[in-house]
Amino acid sequence: MRQRIHFVVDPQGWCCMGLIILVWLYNTIFIPKVILFPHYEEGNISVVAVLCYYFCSLFCIASLFRASVADPGKLPENPKIPITEREHWELCNKCNMMRPKRSHHCSRCGHCVRRMDHHCPWINNCVGEDNHWLFLQLCFYTQILSSYTLILDFCHYYYFLPLKKENW
């Protein structure tokens, strides 16, 4: 099933996404310039470590964009309810639409979402039935990138030999 693109107009969410992108850009430029490239030039690490860092960084930002623009499971305006399923649907008291049970109305987005988990300001989107897996991918890749950066920082200060040339 092809994912529909979904945008939420929320200033707080756009600020959070902007902050994440700025931190990502800082780490993508700063960490390699201070830790990876100088140690690569002196032979302390291999090109594989540099490529792994950039791949983790790329996967992290790609999963952020995928989770932020994917439709979380927004209910259509006039859903077609099968006769056998009518007892499993209820009326939303905020938007006056029929929705399946376990659906919730997001006050930030202004619509009902199937199996809504929460509205995440960091992706500026609800986490629901259709984008839950993408949100978990984002959490996984963010954890991998953060752990890899922490390991590189630890190695830079305690394991690698001191750099021979001056590094700003």
From TrEMBL:
Q: Which residues cross the membrane?
A: 12-31, 43-65
Where is this protein found? Membrane
Please, which domain of life does this record's source organism belong to?
A: Eukaryota
- Domain Palmitoyltransferase DHHC residues, every copy: 88-162
Report keywords, A-Z: Acyltransferase, Membrane, Transferase, Transmembrane, Transmembrane helix
Cellular component (GO) terms are:
endoplasmic reticulum; Golgi apparatus; membrane
Q: Which EC main class describes this enzyme?
A: transferase
Biological process, per Gene Ontology: protein targeting to membrane
Membrane topology of this protein: Multi-pass membrane protein
Q: Cite the EC number.
A: 2.3.1.225
InterPro entries, sorted: Palmitoyltrfase_DHHC (IPR001594), PFA4/ZDH16/20/ERF2-like (IPR039859)
| UniProt similarity note | Belongs to the DHHC palmitoyltransferase family.
**Domains: entry comment:** The DHHC domain is required for palmitoyltransferase activity.
Name of the protein: Palmitoyltransferase
Question: According to the entry, what is the taxonomic lineage of the organism?
Answer: Eukaryota, Metazoa, Chordata, Craniata, Vertebrata
